[in-house]
Amino acid sequence: MGNYIIKRLLLMIPTLLIVALAIFMLMSLTEIDPGRLLLGDAASQEDVDAKNSEFGLDKPAPVQFFNYVKNIVLNGDFGNSWFTRKTVADELFARIPTSLKLATLGMLVTLVVGVPLGILSAVKQYSFLDTFSRISAMIIAALPSFWLGLLLLLLFALKLGWLPTSGDKSFLNFIMPMIALGLPHAASMLRLTRSSMLETIRADYIRTAMAKGVPKGKVILSHALRNALLPIITQTGLQFGAMVGGSVVTEKVFAMPGLGTKLVDSVKQCDVPLVVGTCLIISITYSFVMLAVDLLYAYVDPRIKAKYSK
Amino acid sequence: MQKRIIVSQVVREERTRTHTDRKAVYVKKERRKTMKKLLTILLAALMLLSVVACSRTTVEEAAAPATEPHEVRTDINLVNQEVLVSLDIMQTNKTFTRSVLVQVYEGLTVDNEDGTWDYLLADNISVSDDSLVYTVKLKQGVIFHNGDEMKANDVAFSLNRAISMPFLAAYCGSIDHAEVVDDYTVTIYMKAPYAPMMTDLSYLPIVNEKLVTEAGDEKMATEIVPCATGPYMLAENDETHVKLVAHDKYHRGAPQIKTVNFKIIADSSTQLIAFEAGEIDLLNVPTANWASVSADDRWNTEIIAANHYSMIELNLYGKYTSNILIRKAIAHAVDPEGVNAMGYDGLAVVCNRIADPAFVFGAPEEGTIFEYDPEKAKQYLADAGYPDGLDIGEITVAGGGYYEKMAIAIQGYLETVGIHGEIVTYDSATVGNKARGNDYEILVSGHPLTSDYNFLREKWHSASNSATHNDVNDPYIDEMFDKGAAELNPEKRKEIYAELDKYLSEYCLYPTMFHKTMCYAYDKNLTFSAVPSNYYVYNLKWN
Question: Is there a contact between B133 and B112 (Cβ–Cβ < 8 Å)?
């Protein structure tokens, strides 16, 4: 198992290099002039050229990339934002906690709503509850995030005055964003859990367990759910990764300073160090989440653990 | 016999099957009915939620009305659209960063945004006969945020620093350098006479030499350095808010409002909800919501034309727009009233010329106007050799803002006279590149104004670097702008600009549509007077 983890961690290095290279190449294809964008229209061309040279843009793209990687490897330096002059690390560390909190709480909503309802739907297939859950899931999945967010704002912030509209200082600030972010994902989680559970509860070993007189609850939770968990874990990992860097709309609506918004803003400004830094952070998060998913597989399914041990 | 038994079994099975089928069909039907009911209930619940959420009555209605006795507040909550890019006003030209930092930094003068200016940190400024030397007598007793007194060395240092900052190139182009004469006197040496100097000095902030030298540019941009003289000091700055506190030793008297909280909220709908929920005291309301907000007596509202113009830019080197007849056809084909209605919900102030005398010194009261006249447009088009119309290609516009809506209206007007164009949206940086590279035919855009006609220099003068600079390269235009900038007699300047304006109009490169407006809504207990661009919190008062 230890070897497997080390192997996976080592594999992250080429992955991150490829991500950084891809972003560099894409950014170098844009026609945007960062120096001009930063200094404004009134600045002389000499000043603009000097600024671009300060950014290292006077060198060929491969050299820029090499220098960038060299700085990270030798000095642990991701560079400075071209626009704010803050270090990329400072810029991102100011936002990572908010993004992680938002993604974790959003994921919590997804799991708390999606998984139990999915299990109940499967166990009580074609019942009122099943129908209700499926229809609710369909409707919630169809709601655009920003619309759901605004609706929540109108109701809980304006109408009832219970929650603040924006910010990230207290748990109260996160209640509406986590619902707006987690609920649409809960819908797909519900459907996935239901179909996965349906597949499992029809298996012979479940029927055998039932026939042996094992209590139904235990059969469902200990036997059926455990075997149905693999796709749910995968989905959880993917959704969590997507929530960390991709909840731009939720972040915008609730004015939460997350990584997604930072990424979009820095792309607009062609702030290459910040774009690459943000993408790398998101990639690292993804990689770790997927590693955790794989390790959870082993925990849930001993057959996989045995495979890793080989 | 056996056959009969088999038949009866088959019949029984058939009956059972039919019964089962019927039962299944019945169950299916029931299920479908239940589903329908559920769907109806869910949708009704969703609609109810939407209606409840969107209804206008709020818990805030229970809040005390303005007329009731109340404690006078000493704090104010405002909103800013973006995180501050820099904490040093000399190192940024981002509008939303500047709108916060103008509360902190001050210049020698203040621009009144109506073509006039007043002294601020200067007590008096005298100009030499050749207009090349400005002698500045400083106001005494001005205290920096760190408690030091402002002296001439700080002013000279600040002006020389400003000259070296490319961000401020628009305001320092004519200044050569500044020198200290005594503790309260500074001399500014000019490269050439420059009439709008007094207004431009308002954009050059005065900072504490010692602190800024110690801090260096990077720390100035990223950390709070108490180096300015303004009524408010930066206290906190992060990704969600900026907090300013009153500078109690401010030279014009301590501000009444002691704490200013700028919340960072990018989304305009969220801004409005935050305002309606009472989290924000003053808001520039999105035009789409203005009708409902201004009709609501829970707030005071005020609308004012902004120092900004929105226009069509026609490329002098375009495939079609290089032809003056086509440019005139376009100018006459578009009705600014209609573009205002579509692009700015009818709230903008329609105008036919870039420089409005209400804001801009030297802008002529009269001049060539391209009135909306589709027949004339068609005639110009026919004269240009396109009696059956033409396909002009791309109508370039930056996506996301109201320019896009303007472009739709413009496209419609052009279509009616036979000019077909396809709207293509880009991000604003790419639009800037296209403008700078003359890579467009029609570009829908806008630009902020300054309060002197000289600001048009950046669009027309051959030495301009502006993104929207049209390379006219007309020596007469260069000469007139230079002459206007050098002429210190206001009346003579106006004459120069009147003549120049007439000449520029003939090029028909920038058919102007409207000045956008600032639509303010604010707390009933707040005294606020709207201004065309940045408002100063110092001038706000709680009743």
Answer: no
Is B340 at the interface with chain A, CB within 8 A? no
Residues 43-82 of B with CB under 8 A from A: 43, 46, 49-50, 52-55, 57-60, 82
The kind and range of the H/E element at B305 are strand B299-314
Res B57 pLDDT > 70? no
Instruction: Mean pLDDT check: name the lowest of A200-214, B209-223, B393-407.
Output: A200-214
Structural contact between residues A279 and A191, judged by C-beta atoms closer than 8 angstroms: no
Contact A149, A176 (CB under 8 A): yes
- A202-238 tens-digit pLDDT: 888 888 988 888 888 888 888 888 888 888 998 999 9
Q: Binning pLDDT at 50, 70 and 90, where does residue A308 land?
A: low
**Nearest chain A residue to B38, by CA:** A132
CA distance B324 to B511: 13
Beta-carbon separation of B53 and A36 below 8 A: no
Cβ atoms < 10 Å from Cβ of B400: 11
Gap between the Cα atoms of A195 and A217, Å rounded: 18
Backbone angles phi and psi of B236, in degrees to 5: -140, 150
Q: Do A42 and B430 touch (CB under 8 A)?
A: no
Which stretches within B55-143 are classed as H helix? Answer: 95-101
A138 HSE (CA, 13 A, CB side): 11
CB B377 within 8 A of CB B336: no
How many residues are there in chain B?
543
Distance CA B69, CA B57 (A): 23
- Indicate which of A52, A159, A248 best probes the interface with B, i.e. most B CBs within 10 Å of its own CB: A159
- Tell which wins on pLDDT, B18 or A1: A1
Rounded CA separation A299/A307 (Å): 12
A303 in B contact zone (CB under 8 Å): no
Q: What is the ipTM of this complex?
A: 0.85
Is the sign of the CA dihedral A94, A99, A102, A107 positive or negative? negative
Amino acid code (one letter) for A90: D
Q: What is the pLDDT of residues B113-159, one digit of tens each?
A: 777 899 999 999 999 988 899 999 999 999 999 999 999 999 999 99
Q: Which of A94, A157, A268 sits opposite B238 (nearest CB)?
A: A94
